User: Fold these one by one.
Assistant:
Number 1:
Amino acid sequence: MGEVDQAFIQSIEHRANLDTIEIEGIPLIDLSLSHTTDINLLVSEIGNACNNWGFFQVINHGVPLELLEKIKVAAKTFFDQPMEEKRKVKRDEVNPMGYYESEHTKNVRDWKEVFDFLIKDPTFLPASPELEDDEMRTLSNQWPENPPQFREVCQEYARELEKLGYKLLELIALSLGLPSNRFNGYFEDQLSRMRLNHYPPCPCPELALGVGRHKDAGALTIVTQDDVGGLQVKRKSDGVWVPVKPTSNALVINVGDIIQVWSNEAYESVEHRVVVNSERERFSIPIFFFPSHYVMVKPLEELVNEGNPPKYKPYNFGKFNAARYRSNFKKLEVQNIQISDFKII
Ligand code: OGA
Ligand code: NI
């Protein structure tokens, strides 16, 4: 074991089984709408994927393929730099955007390094999770000088992904029987962020994880991954960890906690994790769609009734986010704030 610090070691029940399993199932959906395809068909495919898996991949998503390539090259070039270069944009307690190499998920350290940036820069949000405290703070991005094109490529990618995010939110709204623009207003001052993930080869992939099991706290996540593989989804039917097969030109989509609440659990946010390996480094680039800080997240009125009463109390997304930040920076003894804290039992 020697080579891996204790902080990275997962408890036995959470370690990866490294036997490669091939399971088909996570849907691959073609987003192109030709004259022959019916939008209703697409909407029902999306609805089924959200319902059965909470995860799916999309092709013909409209994001230029050269841009997918460019952002991966930018990520690799950035992470390939010496630590002292990356540390120049290191995140700290004041600014949570930038480079970071010691993130913890559920109090176990992740085998990865990341670079985070906001889609809207600057972004304003509550300074503290306390409800009675209305102090706000400003978050802004830190951009490295090198590689030279880094900022431009990241921002161009973010703009394209934002468009795709709205398109998917519209399809998801339709699949729930809502008007297509039902969610759009929640994202006017969005707190969405993008993350470049680098998972270096790990000497003990059977003990550590790239990202420990978790659910995404936002509304929707869109991930670009390379061909290495490692992302696994906990299958709803039996809890088996199913790999998301790297598929060229495809993007991975998953439903986050907020859609679970908005839909009153018609769709669930599904647990996932990243397994590492001892040979190849891996890159992935998620964008997390977060609503505006003032949005009160709660089951949508159109989706609840006497027979299906709201399963969650409303919560303020900005305050929720502030509570998450506080705990994700440090290794805490207590559990992170969760949507289950607002569950009506
Ligand atoms: C995440 C995540 C998946 C991946 O960062 O929340 O789930 O493939 N990443 O890196
Ligand atoms: Ni995730």
Number 2:
Amino acid sequence: MGIKVGIDLGTTFCAVAMIGADGKAAVIQNEMGERLTPSVIQFFDDGSYIVGAEAKEALDYGEEGCAAVFKRSMGESGAYCSFYGNDYTAQQLSSIMLRELKRQAEKVTGQRIDEAVVTVPAYFGELQREPTLRAAKDAGLTVRQLVSEPTAAAMNYAADHFRENAKILVYDLGGGTFDLTLVQMKKNARVDVIRTTGNSMLGGKNWDDELAKLLEQKILEDVEYTDTDIHTLCTREAEKVKIALSSAMKAKAHFTLEDHGSCTVEVTREEFDDATAHLREKTRGLCRNLLDGLRLSWRDINAVVLVGGSTRMPQIKRFIKEISGREPLSRVNPDEAVAIGAAIMANVKAQPYAVQKMTDDASVIRALRKGSVPAKEMPVESLQKLTVSDVVAHTLGKVTVNKDGTGYKNQVIIRENSVIPVKVAVAEQFYTKGGEDNESEIIMLQGDSENVAECTAVCRYVVSGIKHDPSRNPTLLKVQYSYDANGIVHVQARQEDQTTDLPARKLPAPPDMSRYCEGISAPPAKAKAEPLRIMMAIDVSGSMTGEPMEEAKNAMCRFIDEFSSYPGDFKIGAMVVSDRTQVVCELTNDLAQCKEAVNDIKVCMTGLCNEADPFDEILNRLAVARGKKVGVVLADGVWAHRDKAVTRARRCAAMGINIIGMGFGEADEEFLKAISSGEIGAMKVELSELTVSFGKIAQELGGGRGGKKLFGGSKTAQTECETWPAPGETL
Ligand code: AMP
């Protein structure tokens, strides 16, 4: 049997750890006896390469073929670098790195690696996590899970210093990213990540850049002009000077300038700290947001754990003391904590991740308050006993048509900081076409904003094989959106009443999202649509009892939906008629409200028989309305006072109101014709055709949703669900 390892795939350094025979987790040294391996690769013209310290040295000497800091570009399209005619993406470079780490760890331990937990910055989204997972698989690793770096660091801390109820803030400043994570330790050796936030473009590299600028300024104080590319020289020297300033108050950098010979500049720690104050401030802002969001203060935090190589800078320790009022913990080795925590997570026994649902802020805050009892020491006898629940850093949503049909928006499905794995099922209407392979395209977004332009399009799912059934158009698609334990997005879909999932292909997001960031331009004919007012009247006499009433309500609701993107001023209302009339919904543009009123309609609510007719009420509501005016009257039997009804219906016609008489069952076709006016006229249909007939009327009146069908209608019902049904079951 092989070993299970944790791998910290750092921006500047990598580390591999495992649990040893003594039950303790520790870093595995590399072939050169080093605990950390620089994340640098040097390629040669014969296609070979070297990885680690030697490559880093070559990089420092400015040799050709060196690739570094590629983790920052994970997920970016196109090549990260190109050497000797070969292009390399960040994913390929990471894969080379991981393959080499695996090879060396297996050689040093003499054991095969069976499984690995690979760490990623908490703030890595779908676009970075997917390629990281692929890189690890391409490197020949069996990945048990991708884990957020601060979560792994918290596990490492918890293994040694478990204190029930303690709230720990992990401040993780690496080479390229900053992650901030609040963790709470709970009963039964459980570690819950409560919140995570960060900045994927803030890390040691930014401190290097500021130092490079400082060095450049200092050179230019002495040398007015030089042909030498001092920017590149200073950038190359900056990291060394920065690291030197972590242990000394001053550091020197030596340069050779083509036209001036050698030159030495000195930087003090104070100058460096001043030049980078704005970077520290960025992290202060994120700390404040995280604590404020949970209504916590620094007093509620039991310890701040520093992780990541950049927290070795004395300015960070001082800064944490200044903002939190306490010394950060120095018991954790910031370079090794992540790999060790990952190794612990690779070894926890089956079912390591307790899924705990905290659906809203209020419940998170309540749970935190409940935990506000003094923390108590509680040794964990075995690392395998620890369990952890993690959260996702990015809100997941999808592109959808906005309520008034004038543009697109981000429909939020899973909120950031939801405990992963998490699944949410959404019921969506989808309009099918006959004789075609009906496909639904779903574009997934990460980001909080309703504005698509402010979100990141992360992938696209194409759901195919949707069956067309004219009696159920739109059909209902049940779509399950999920983040798995790796924080990776998945979509599954099933058509109503089906027992197997529809085929769903995951594809890259469209390269050009601009059309989803602008308004939808309505088709020319619709663009000029005149205002439209519709009053629906339904017969609720005793003969409608049972299926007729249910079918009629269903058809009316779908009819209302057809106008969700009517390209003009639109209002609809509903009334019932039997022995009396009653308006159940006055004319409104709130379609949901109208549908609610229709759904509340009951048989005989205005009496058992057909003594009344709806036309006076229709006239009252529509006579003075602007634009096109329509009364849709649905009946299933014979009306007691036919002649009076016909006279009143004609009065409506005289006032410019088109009456559409629809009937089924016992309805008299002649009577329907007599009350109807306008182009559409009367309709006598079977009960089973009611929905389709209503749909046709809607189309005639300018309803329907044309090109916006792809994203489902405005009607989506969101339900949290624990499990997606197995084949053979419906949701
Ligand atoms: P990590 O991504 O956690 O490997 O952190 C790497 C970052 O830590 C790089 O930007 C390094 O320059 C920085 N770093 C490592 N050691 C030190 C040190 N002693 N002082 C300042 N920065 C350091």
